[in-house]
Amino acid sequence: MLRFNRARRTVLSDTLRELANLVVAALVLGQFAGGRRSLLLIFGGMTAWVLLVGAALVCAPEGQQMADALIMVYGIILVAWIVVLLDWWGRRKARQSNEHR
After folding, report:
1. pLDDT tens digits for 44-92?
2. Helices (H), the chain
3. Interaxial angle between packed helices 6-24 and 65-99, expressed in degrees from 0 to 180 and rounded to the nearest 10
4. Which of 10, 83, 22, 27 is nearest to 52 (CA)?
5. Residues sharing a CB contact under 8 Å with residue 64, sequence separation 6 or more, in sequence order
6. In whole angstroms, what is the distance from residue 101 CA to residue 84 CA?
7. d(CA 45, CA 39)
8. Distance CA 26, CA 30 (A)
9. Residues 6+ apart with CB under 8 A from 98
10. pLDDT per residue over 63-73, tens digit each?
11. What is the pTM of this model?
12. Could you give the CA distance from residue 7 to residue 60 in angstroms, rounded to a whole number?
């Protein structure tokens, strides 16, 4: 097993968190931006995000784990809800405009 010092563990943890966010952006949020939906890609993206964040928490130094994780998780949840709300609102507007024709 590799043994990292505190600085390297911090770098590894931060890199895994950023990688997790890139995976979510590409596989989940990209579905909404591209106009087509694939539940398999969305589920795969969320699963990869959970696994990468879990690996980041395992690698994180002791004092940094919980506060950073909670901030990141709540931030991702907030962004996801905003995207879902905007998508729903756009679809609602499109349905209403099609009904009035």
Report:
1. 887 888 788 778 877 777 766 566 666 777 777 778 778 878 888 888 8
2. 6-24, 30-34, 39-59, 65-99
3. 10
4. 22
5. 10, 13
6. 26
7. 10
8. 5
9. none
10. 665 666 667 77
11. 0.56
12. 10
Distances (CA, A) of 23 to 2, 51, 66, 71, 84: 26, 11, 22, 18, 18
In the numeric block, the tokens 């209403």 are attached to 96
Task: Kindly list the distances between the CA atom of residue 77 and the CA atoms of 7, 43, 53, 80, in Å, as whole numbers in the listed order.
Answer: 29, 15, 14, 5
Tokens at 62, concatenated: 């002791």
